[in-house]
Fold:
Amino acid sequence: MHKKFVVLILLICSACQTTKIKNDNYKFSSSVVELGSIGTSKLSYNLNTFEPKALPKLENNIRVEIGVVPYNKKLNKIYKSKAKYNQNQTKVAYIDSLPIKPELVTIKILDIAGLVEEINADYNSSILKLLTNTQNLKIISSLAVSLSTDEITKIRQSDAFYLTNNQYKKYTIALYKTGKKTDIIDINPETIVAYQVSSFCWTKSTKGIWLVADIVNEKNKCSGTTSKKLNEKNNNKDLFDM
Structure:
């Protein structure tokens, strides 16, 4: 009975630190996160924390999916609670009784295969080494951010979006329309409302080298012969040969 009670309390605590956006679970915390950053994700003392460790170098743009959703009462409460940690945070004029609500933007990594290829590339060998040595690191795979109405308008006028790495260890979102780059959006930490965390799935190449094979939601299992742990019994069927 005691064990069941402890599990129930942990589930309640976890639920208090998550929110639903477009039917997906998002975490919120005062931690500074960035889309594509790799680090340790924990829930302790009823608080989510994410400690960044590395940012992979991106020599190719990574396609992302962007959605626009209205704020609700819980999201507004979360955003306002983060303001005490950042005095420069932009204010959101949310009034529950008004039919038209401020809008929130979700940015989610869409091209998982492309990101996996970048992480496995020679220029990210230090990242791959860090991942294989620790085996407990996660990646920020989606963000919910509060952008200005001008930026949301630019998003609505675009038809493709990419995570780009044109500056050293700095990511931006590039906007495209009919194949042409039209603008760039810089995601500032103070605009982030919530985030999603994903886990790495591993496979072994024919040369006996561990490589990232997939990136999945932290609650999901790895598929096929891939595994979240570097298991020496894993066979040599590989998805990415070096």
Observations:
- The first strand starts at residue 18 and ends at 21.
- The helical segments are 2-16, 73-82, 112-120, 125-134, 149-156.
